[in-house]
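Same chain as my last thread, 63 residues:
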Amino acid sequence: MNNEKVIKSIANTLISQYGDDAETVAMLRASEFAATFNNDEWIKWEKIISEIQNIDKSPILDS
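reply #2:
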């Protein structure tokens, strides 16, 4: 599974689990990794936050 698919999968999972709070949860995770200077994980979670924001702006409508 490539990195972009992983990011989208995590973002969708967070939205499914936490709804409107998904972005907040992702921000908390990002801040944990930033505080420990784990740059790779911090960047990954920043990308997840961005993906959550993109999904929120243009949701896919399923019937």
